[in-house]
Amino acid sequence: MISVRVPATSANLGPGFDAVGLALSLSTRISLDRSPEPVVEVRGTGVDLIPHGPEHPAYRAARFVAEMVDESDAHFHLIQDNSIPPARGLGGSAAALVGGAVAANDLLGRALAAPDLLNLVCELDGHPDNAAPALLGGLVIGTLTPEGISSVRLEPRNLKVAVAVPDFAVSTTAARRALPEKVPHRDAVFNVGRSGLLLGALATGEYHLLRVAMQDRLHQPYRSHLVPGLESVIEAALAQGAYGASLSGSGPTVLAFTPERRASRIAAAMREAFEESGVEAKAWALDVDLTGARVEPPEGVPSPGLAPVT
Ligand code: HSE
């Protein structure tokens, strides 16, 4: 059996809609072996929200890899040990998909090279901002082209990531349906400037720029009705000294970049702001994951969870 650990991810980071994503220190583990028929077991966080059959994203990715390497008759026994809250904007299904693809490639003789795997997981997920950082770790800016993904990877330093995770789910499909067909040109210009600033700030360490650089007009305003308390959670994070804050992916989690020593206090303030809006939430002070998907020995113990900030 091959086991692959894959990090959670936060996509968009404010203005970088469908293009920018960051790997975080929560993870899921996908273990895979050949089997005469499909078997899918899910353990850990959010098992009720994760498919238990061949429609599981990791299973679908594993089957996709099998087709690509001319093993279309292959079936698998798949086990997921999960610590990523699903349907919360933390890239849970992208992590599973990446785990399934990497594990299947390993199990079937590593016929796919790293760039093929990157293109495959980004295409399967439909956009690169969760799948690419889940595979590669760090911060990835990527865009899909007819020739495949064009991407750059950065390693932000001396930065913590506070997340407040509400106790309700938002499906990415529903959150994408909330988006308009067209946006005003001035809003596109607003985001071009902010996303350039965001990447410059994260590349150079000029984190004081993140307060402005994480503002967005392409998706967050259209999704805020799905996340009661969003604005006050962002304000609470900034008031406690966060560099910047935004919706994580399509929500409902809110993410803040913080100085290392203030991360726990900021995470707790974000959770309290959710609770003042009537939303139960958990909060974590996370690190940036710089490793991405990695093959692990299958020792059979559940993936380590991280205690939330109290
Ligand atoms: N960029 C995607 C979206 C991320 O915002 O819809 C989904 O996690």
Provide tags for this entry.
Alpha-Beta Plaits; 2 domains; globular; Ribosomal Protein S5, domain 2; binds L-homoserine; four-stranded antiparallel β-sheet
Please give a structural write-up.
The chain has two domains: 2-154 and 289-296, 2-Layer Sandwich (Ribosomal Protein S5, domain 2); 160-287, Alpha-Beta Plaits (2-Layer Sandwich). It is 35% helix and 26% strand. It is built from ten helices and eleven strands. The protein has helices at residues 57-68, 92-107, 114-125, 128-136, 172-177, 185-204, 210-213, 220-223, 230-239, 263-276, and strands spanning 2-11, 20-35, 39-44, 75-82, 139-145, 148-154, 160-166, 244-247, 254-258, 281-287, 294-296. The longest helix has 20 residues, at 185-204. The structure holds L-homoserine (HSE). L-homoserine binds next to helix 4 and helix 5.
CATH architecture label of the largest domain: 2-Layer Sandwich
CATH topological fold name of the largest domain = Ribosomal Protein S5, domain 2
CA-based shape: globular
What value does the Rg take, in angstroms?
A: 19 Å
Number of helices: 10
Total strands: 11
At the first level of CATH, the class of the largest domain is Alpha Beta
* SSE sequence, one letter per element: EEEHEHHHEEEHHHHHEEHEE
Biggest beta sheet attributes: 7 strands, mixed
Classify the secondary structure makeup into a structural class: alpha+beta
Mean pLDDT across the residues is 95
What is the helix fraction of residues, given as a range?
25-40%
Poorly predicted runs: none
Ligands bound to this protein structure? L-homoserine
Distance between the termini: 37 Å
